[in-house]
Design goal:
The strands form 2 sheets. The protein has a 6-stranded mixed sheet, sandwiched between helices. The protein has a 4-stranded antiparallel sheet with strand order 2-1-4-5, with helices on one face. Helices cover 33% and strands 25% of the residues. The chain has a domain of 179 residues: Rossmann fold, CATH 3.40.50.300. By secondary structure, it is of the alpha/beta class.
């Protein structure tokens, strides 16, 4: 793959997802170039998590296409997966395992060779500051440390693209600060898309904001372009108050 700074690393092309009559998202289109930190902003229920699951190949689209590093996540799933690290909201962690055991397990599942796996475990333990809890059961860790373990798992194979769904949900202010600093540091070498409904998150870490409401994109640009009177609160309220919800629209195949 090209190493160009302008290379598109995350692409959504006309993505739609229908559940019977319910339209979760419709005709979502955007592309994110290499090295950009993008916030995927919207209220709860806007379609953020659905879009994330489509981009990572966790679910299949009803229409449209998703690609990571130019690889279609449906047709070229394994090639796309090698480039992708995914941190879902409340991601799967084995509570009886220690962070070290978990990283060892996931590295072996990914087929990392023993010497390389040891190097990568050492790297992500340092990156996510897990040294003090490596031998403690994950089930006994704080929410903040569990989130760090999840991030370490996502980074274990050193992916070029990192997708995170509500990564600071449930963290205390100190944990949020530390996690955001980690995101900014990771953004120096990786392409990052993180979903959030927290306005401070956008201002703290994002180069760009993509705003979704009722399953449709309503804004795409720099955070400064979205602000009104120096704040994101007014445009957030304005963009989420319109009543043209796609939630009540019939699925495309059911329309006349």
């Amino acid at each position: 793959m090209s190493g160009s700074q302008n290379q598109v690393m995350i692409e959504a092309d006309g993505l739609s997802k229908y559940y019977g009559q319910f339209v979760a998202i419709q005709d979502v289109t955007f592309s994110i170039p290499r090295g950009q930190i993008t916030a995927f902003l919207g209220p709860n229920g806007a379609g953020k998590s659905t879009t994330m699951k489509l981009l990572t190949g966790f679910i299949a689209p009803s229409a449209g296409r998703a690609a990571i590093g130019g690889y279609d996540v449906t047709a070229q799933r394994m090639k796309a997966a090698k480039l992708l690290g995914y941190l879902p909201e409340n991601g799967p962690l084995y509570s009886d395992m220690t962070p070290l055991e978990s990283l060892q397990f996931f590295g072996e599942v990914r087929g990392l060779e023993e010497a390389h796996l040891k190097q990568r475990i050492d790297a992500v333990v340092e990156q996510c500051a897990l040294q003090q809890v490596l031998e403690k059961p994950i089930g006994k860790l704080s929410k903040g440390y569990r989130q760090r373990v999840g991030l370490a798992q996502a980074l274990l194979h050193d992916p070029e693209v990192l997708i995170m769904d509500e990564p600071t949900a449930g963290l205390d202010p100190n944990q949020i600060h530390d996690f955001r600093e980690n995101i900014k540091e990771l953004g120096k070498t990786k392409t990052i898309l993180l979903s959030t409904h927290i306005l401070q998150e956008v201002e703290a870490v994002a180069d760009r904001v993509i705003f979704i409401h009722n399953g449709r994109l309503v804004f795409d640009g720099a955070p400064e372009e979205l602000k009104e009177d120096g704040s994101l609160e007014k445009p957030f309220y304005r963009l989420t108050q319109h009543t043209n919800s796609v939630d009540s629209m019939p699925a495309k195949e059911d329309r006349v």
